[in-house]
């Protein structure tokens, strides 16, 4: 039988230092991350919520006009005089280019850093290259943990399967730099530029000529120079990425999978659960958001009650009967939807009986402020 998941107890526990939320889009993952961060702050913990999702939902729900790569304090977090000692909530959004710039500055000389910043390939890679966001997420998380400033770091990952790609960051970046094409492209800078066209094998020479013809000699030289510079500073970045990866597997870290009671969302949740297990990552539990609830009508099945009402009032006041039947039919629709959510959640739980789970009831309106986040926080307790 699936155990209840008390997400509030998780973030209130001083032993919990990092919470990573993941899930598909549109399931309330960002709201869940914000609510967990707020609950951690309310428990007297200095908390920062880092979102990798470029959408603005986190800033809006926290009452901030914008978020950037620097933690911003959220005001009005505590109700009345209930502010706990040490409790504070900060929020930030990953700026992958700025984070990449910081990596370059920390792993090269000022002169070399300026050369890298001016390189057109670096400018493209640091802002839009596939996978850069995940690499920089790993780097930023490592920076936040290393400062020792935070009692709790809550990470809101991108709303897709790529949310867990940062787990591969050390290996993927290593494969990128160790690949044959990268070694080929770095040859000009290592061999003195023009010497690149005098490679020792005919096969590589043909590739060189093709590249030169297609993208031009100057562009090729820019690329090779950048790759060589990146390779020279890679050691420090990979070492810290490895350290962060190990930190994610260590005690004090918890992953929370967020889903909705719909087939696609629960299918994605199953993927996340399986992926985390395969990586031996500490999965704390699953949150099933926006589950609908209904109550019985005078102890009877809603549809039966509606049919009885129609029969009883058929010869009486038609207006009153119509209103009653309409109301009961609405209730039938709600009850049917609620039964669907229960069925879908139970199906997921039966497939993952050892994964703690909590259902969060759907609220009448969307969450867009701190009070809404507090309500979600209360519902996250099992």
TrEMBL record:
What organism is recorded for this protein?
Answer: Jatrophihabitans endophyticus
- Identify the stretch annotated as signal peptide in this record: none
Task: Tell me where on the tree of life, at the top rank, the source sits.
Answer: Bacteria
Q: What is this protein called?
A: Arsenite efflux ATP-binding protein ArsA
Which UniProt key words apply to this protein?
ATP-binding, Nucleotide-binding
Query: Per its UniProt record, what SUPFAM superfamilies does this chain match?
Result: P-loop containing nucleoside triphosphate hydrolases
- Please state every residue range assigned to the domain named ArsA/GET3 Anion-transporting ATPase-like: 16-290
A GO molecular function assigned to this protein is: ATP hydrolysis activity
């Amino acid at each position: 039988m699936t155990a209840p998941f008390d997400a509030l107890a998780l973030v209130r526990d001083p032993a919990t230092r990092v919470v990573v939320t993941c899930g598909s889009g549109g399931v309330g993952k960002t709201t869940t991350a914000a609510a967990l961060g707020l609950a951690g702050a309310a428990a007297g913990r200095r908390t920062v919520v880092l979102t990798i999702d470029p959408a603005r939902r986190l800033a809006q729900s926290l009452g901030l006009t914008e978020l950037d790569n620097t933690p911003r304090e959220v005001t009005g977090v505590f109700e009345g005089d209930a502010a706990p000692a040490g409790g504070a909530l900060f929020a930030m959004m990953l700026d992958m280019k700025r984070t990449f710039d910081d990596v370059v500055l920390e792993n090269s000389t000022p002169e070399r850093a300026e050369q890298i910043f001016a390189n057109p390939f670096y400018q493209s890679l640091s802002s839009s290259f596939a996978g850069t966001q995940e690499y920089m997420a790993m780097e930023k998380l490592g920076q936040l943990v290393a400062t020792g400033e935070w009692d709790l770091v809550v990470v809101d990952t991108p709303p897709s399967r790529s949310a867990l790609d940062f787990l591969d960051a050390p290996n993927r970046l290593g494969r990128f730099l160790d690949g044959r094409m990268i070694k080929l492209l770095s040859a000009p800078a290592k061999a003195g530029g023009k010497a690149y066209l005098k490679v020792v094998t005919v096969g590589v020479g043909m590739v060189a000529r093709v590249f030169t013809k297609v993208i031009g000699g100057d562009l090729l030289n820019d690329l090779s120079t950048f790759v060589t510079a990146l390779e020279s500073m890679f050691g420090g970045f990979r070492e810290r990425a490895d350290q962060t990866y190990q930190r994610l597997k260590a005690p004090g870290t918890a992953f929370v999978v967020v889903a909705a009671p719909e087939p696609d969302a629960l299918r994605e949740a199953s993927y996340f659960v399986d992926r985390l297990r395969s990586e031996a990552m500490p999965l704390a539990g699953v949150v099933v958001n926006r589950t609908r609830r209904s109550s019985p009508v005078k102890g009877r099945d809603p549809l039966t009650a509606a049919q009885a009402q129609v029969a009883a009032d058929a010869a009486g006041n038609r207006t009153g009967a119509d209103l009653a039947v309409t109301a009961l039919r609405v209730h039938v629709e709600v009850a049917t939807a609620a039964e669907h959510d229960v069925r879908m959640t139970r199906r997921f739980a039966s497939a993952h009986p050892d994964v703690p789970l909590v259902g969060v009831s759907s609220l009448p309106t969307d969450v867009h402020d701190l009070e809404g986040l507090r309500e979600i926080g209360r519902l996250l307790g099992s």
